[in-house]
Recover the amino acids of this structure.
């Protein structure tokens, strides 16, 4: 059938599959690096925002607000095309990772803050009144509750970062989307794009399902 | 009788506001002291200084069993000796009732899990909720939760128990069950400092009643002295307001 040949051309899909997989590897590299760096940045920003001296707190808040407002594509283009004018020339990979990390860090900071602030002061006070040391308090009382709160939104954020890696193709990064568009041009057939979409789905759907499960468990939780 | 809690020249400021002003107080071992007074008079602040949940101004001295209550290495010792029961229970919601009670003895007193569990079950029986051991706090009534909180504090075998309005967050029909547990405790030799609005309970159980106002101890005496023959006009005003209400 015509439609099948156009959008789901099996020979073309088989031929371009290795390219798409190479693209997926790049996508995962960009995503994983940005997620890890974003976690570190977010934790740092969150602690600074909660416990830092006043001027630093304001800076952290400003940072968090700015990087949650700016469109990622704009940021990426600024990093890749504008920074060279001031002598900062980053590779496509680094540009993508930097842009994703800057934004992911801002979101992660807010997630961590919400998690810690959601633990009522009474939990800290009861622990201290019982004579628990700081370590025991954090390990037995505070973190188990905070982690439960933070894991679903953190996983959500990971999904977003992974999806946003597709933007890296605009700075000529050979990620999954870029490989697919190139293969499409080469084969003069859109099947590789469909293949890429299916790979994104196969990769991210389980994560989405995981978040739903967390949220269901939280909903009927033991609180 | 030796004073187990000694407080001298205790002041506490929030910015320019004085929540406590030059409090002197000595509480004997085994004594049951009820602290009464209007809202904002500093009752919570006073008892929260005794286990350093609240810091206090330089110049004040608090000791528990001779150990200074100050930041540093003695603090763990003080907190192990001083149990606290809060208005809002503050149970750990992610642990079963049993685990709530076992945690501190295992971590602080290094008790084995088996021994801690045995003890926890004894205490639950003592506060009348042995059958709730495996449940989570969220599945208990307020009165049951507060009894678990008392058992949790008792598990550390404290010499002193502090209560900050333990029945104020409870539905009226559950106040009695918690007061009953506290009444039973009052005869056991543990020193109790109880902030409460339950005047009937205070009259019945207290060895001594302290009336606070504006961050100061205005008057202290036996329940009969305070409730039947208050000397200070402010005490009289307060009591007539709460008793006629
Ligand atoms: N964190 C704080 N910052 C500023 N002021 C505070 C703070 N905590 C308490 N205060 C003030 O200190 C005073 C004493 O408070 P405290 O909680 O000890 O009163 P209380 O006698 O326990 O009152 P209540 O019966 O309402 O519990 C109050 O005027 C209160 O507003
Ligand atoms: Mg109070």
């Amino acid at each position: 059938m015509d439609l099948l040949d156009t959008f789901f051309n099996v020979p073309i899909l088989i031929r371009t599959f290795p390219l798409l997989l190479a693209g997926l590897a790049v996508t995962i590299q960009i995503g994983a690096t940005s997620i890890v760096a974003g976690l570190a940045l977010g934790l740092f920003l969150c602690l600074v925002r909660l416990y830092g001296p006043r001027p630093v707190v304001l800076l952290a808040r400003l940072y968090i607000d700015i990087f949650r407002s700016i469109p990622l594509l704009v940021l990426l283009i600024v990093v890749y095309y504008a920074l060279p004018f001031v002598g900062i020339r980053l590779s496509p990979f680094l540009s993508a990772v930097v842009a994703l990390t800057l934004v992911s860090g801002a979101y992660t900071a807010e997630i961590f803050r919400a998690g810690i602030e959601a633990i009522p002061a009474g939990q800290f006070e009861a622990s201290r009144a019982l004579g628990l040391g700081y370590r025991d308090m954090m390990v037995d009382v505070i973190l188990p509750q905070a982690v439960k709160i933070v894991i679903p939104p953190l996983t959500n954020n990971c999904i977003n970062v992974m999806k946003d890696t597709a933007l890296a193709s605009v700075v000529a990064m050979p990620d999954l989307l870029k490989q697919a568009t190139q293969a499409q041009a080469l084969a003069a057939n859109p099947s590789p794009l469909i293949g890429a979409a299916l790979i994104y789905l196969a990769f991210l759907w389980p994560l989405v399902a995981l978040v739903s499960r967390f949220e269901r468990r939280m909903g009927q939780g033991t609180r | 009788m030796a004073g187990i809690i000694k407080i001298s020249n205790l002041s506490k400021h929030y910015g320019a506001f004085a929540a406590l002003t030059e409090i002197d107080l000595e509480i004997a071992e085994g004594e049951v002291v009820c602290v009464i007074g209007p809202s904002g008079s500093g009752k919570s602040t006073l008892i929260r200084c005794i286990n350093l949940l609240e810091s206090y101004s330089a110049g004040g001295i608090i000791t528990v069993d001779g150990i200074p209550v100050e930041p540093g290495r003695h603090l763990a010792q003080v907190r192990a000796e001083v149990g606290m029961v809060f208005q809002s229970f503050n149970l750990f919601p992610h642990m079963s009732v049993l685990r709530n009670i076992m945690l501190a003895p295992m971590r602080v007193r290094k008790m084995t899990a088996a021994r801690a569990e045995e003890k926890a079950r004894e205490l639950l029986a003592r506060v009348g909720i042995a059958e709730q051991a495996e449940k989570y706090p969220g599945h208990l009534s307020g009165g049951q939760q507060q009894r678990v909180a008392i058992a949790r504090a008792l598990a550390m075998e404290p010499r002193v128990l502090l209560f900050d309005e333990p029945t104020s967050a409870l539905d009226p029909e559950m106040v009695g069950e918690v007061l009953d547990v506290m009444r039973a405790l009052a005869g056991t030799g543990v020193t109790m400092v109880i902030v409460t609005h339950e005047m009937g309970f205070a009259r019945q159980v207290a060895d001594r009643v302290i009336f606070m106002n504006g961050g100061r101890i205005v008057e202290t005496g036996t329940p009969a002295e305070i409730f039947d023959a208050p000397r200070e006009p402010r005490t009289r005003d307060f009591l007539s307001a709460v008793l006629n209400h």
Notes: Residues 172-186 of chain B form the longest helix (15 residues).
